[in-house]
């Protein structure tokens, strides 16, 4: 009896999570490269959650572009399932010009949820810890940011050298 209840509870939790990583990949656009692996996607979302608590993110195309043009450093995370894709096609070019690493994730819903909003978000910039005014809050995500930053930068370098 208890096993049946555990199975039902597990199924309900899985139903709340929504589609799996593999199912979300099917809705990604063709230009979504470099696309984060399942493990890296989870780490990116955790970093975004920590940075959102410290107010160290910029949400949406308009804020991200403004930050890039002003010279802000960090990591740009772009949702791969944006439609129409023309809305975000210029962001990777700006990132490469400003030497800011970027990565695609499979879902705009998950990206919005990670940034503590109910709305789906097309792109987010996790601002470098050095540029945050509240240093105490920034220390909360410094380690996670550094790990993700190194890995995303490596993916960008691999992509640029193989293209």
Structure characteristics:
4-stranded mixed sheet, 8 helices, 4 strands, 11% strand
What would you say this structure looks like, in words?
With 163 residues, the chain is α+β, with helices and mostly antiparallel strands. Helix content is 53%, strand content 11%. It contains eight helices and four strands; from the N terminus they run H-H-H-E-H-E-H-E-H-E-H-H. Strands 1-4-2-3 form a four-stranded mixed beta sheet, sandwiched between helices. Strand 2, helix 5 (91-97) and strand 3 (102-105) form a beta-alpha-beta unit. Helix 3 (38-53) packs across helix 8 (142-162).
Structural class category? alpha+beta
Poorly predicted segments:
6-16
Number of helices: 8
Q: How many beta-strand elements? A: 4
How does the overall form come out from the CA principal axes? globular
User: Strands of the biggest beta sheet: in what spatial order?
Assistant: 1-4-2-3
Overall pLDDT, averaged?
87
What proportion strand? 5-15%
N- to C-terminal distance: 57 Å
Helix and strand run: HHHEHEHEHEHH
Helix content: 40-55%
Compact summary:
With 163 residues, this protein is α+β, with helices and mostly antiparallel strands.
Indicate the topology:
Elements lengths: L1 H16 L3 H5 L12 H16 L3 E3 H11 L3 E6 L11 H7 L4 E4 L2 H7 L8 E5 L7 H4 L3 H21 L1
Parallel strand pairs: 2-3
Antiparallel strand pairs: 1-4, 2-4
Helix pairs in contact: 3-8
